[in-house]
């Protein structure tokens, strides 16, 4: 959207043509209004060039685009909450079925796709579907954008063929290696905060391929491709606390397991972080996660449970220091 907004416009026109739809919306979070300002300029350029609007290039096809900004809620990225928000309602997820493809925006058949997906369409058509698929692997075709943050020398957005081998090489060579020289890799959250966190032992020497299958085999998921890299100075209990605070804040409050569960989890993390950790807290948190995962109205509940479940499993030492020894993973006494 920032560097090639017309690729998204082209992808959406083709999607509209394919589906017989006359209208498309580019919905963005409130914080990213600057991207929609770029899109507005590009949409006006496309209209002026006769590529949007009525009877595009004399083809008989009518298709137009509009941008819309949410008010900053993470849940409005979930497709049905997005549709509620776009219609002017509070951004609560909707019951599925009916799925948006049957009854979506204003009760009309609707597809909701990621910008990355739609932007790939012109490229796929230009190359041909088979040639595009062959950029990746048989099961995970094409390319994927990876958005790397954290303790690497060269964070940023990388487009890689699916099946790129391997995560260790990617972090240590392509991304320039660990940010702070001499510090070792400790943890990676490969696909945005809503996937399982994995430890260095699950990555180093394991040939983790960057595709759907490779990340599942490594014990996590591809998710959004938002990869967070952490070195050995990071205390995973504190990281997990931070993530849980995010999910508590972003829980839309519609269903009880997610609304009450995330709030309860944050209260436990707060108590632990001021030196009140108890050995039984790990099991207590796992029990709460078990009552959120698979029992919430939308996937945000699962997303809140998975980081905690995986962090306790993969980094037991960090939790032991807070729950049993009452010192943090970095050897600093908790702020009692
Ligand atoms: C809590 C939650 C937040 C989401 N946020 C986003 C988002 O910010 N952007 C996005 O493209 N998809 C987001 N999704 C996924 C969308 O619901 C939808 O599956 C996706 O946009 C489909 O696009 P794709 O099939 O092209 O990948 C979110 C899902 C959930 C459950
Ligand atoms: S799981 Fe959380 S975000 Fe999703 S509907 Fe329930 S309260 Fe809202």
How would you describe this structure to a colleague?
- The structure is a single chain.
- The chain is globular and about 75 Å long.
- The chain has 336 residues and is an alpha/beta fold.
- It has helices at 5-19, 33-48, 79-86, 115-127, 129-133, 167-174, 212-217, 236-250, 256-276, 281-292, 300-314, 316-323; strands at 23-28, 64-69, 143-150, 156-161, 164-165, 185-189, 198-199, 209-210, 226-231.
- It has a five-stranded mixed sheet with strand order 4-3-9-6-7, with helices on one face.
- The termini are far apart.
- It folds into three domains: 5-127, NADH-ubiquinone oxidoreductase 51kDa subunit (Rossmann fold); 143-231, Roll (Ubiquitin-like (UB roll)); 236-323, de novo design (two linked rop proteins) (Up-down Bundle), CATH 1.20.1440.
- The model has no long low-confidence stretch (mean pLDDT 96).
- It contains twelve helices and nine strands.
- Helix 2 links the parallel strand 1 and strand 2.
- The longest helix is centred in the last third of the chain and has 21 residues, at 256-276.
- Iron/sulfur cluster binds at residues 75, 93, 251-255, 258-259, 296-298, 300-301.
Q: In a nutshell, what does this entry contain?
A:
The chain folds into 3 domains: 5-127, Rossmann fold, CATH 3.40.50; 143-231, Ubiquitin-like (UB roll), CATH 3.10.20; 236-323, de novo design (two linked rop proteins). The chain has 12 helices and 9 strands. It has helices at 5-19, 33-48, 79-86, 115-127, 129-133, 167-174, 212-217, 236-250, 256-276, 281-292, 300-314, 316-323; strands spanning 23-28, 64-69, 143-150, 156-161, 164-165, 185-189, 198-199, 209-210, 226-231.
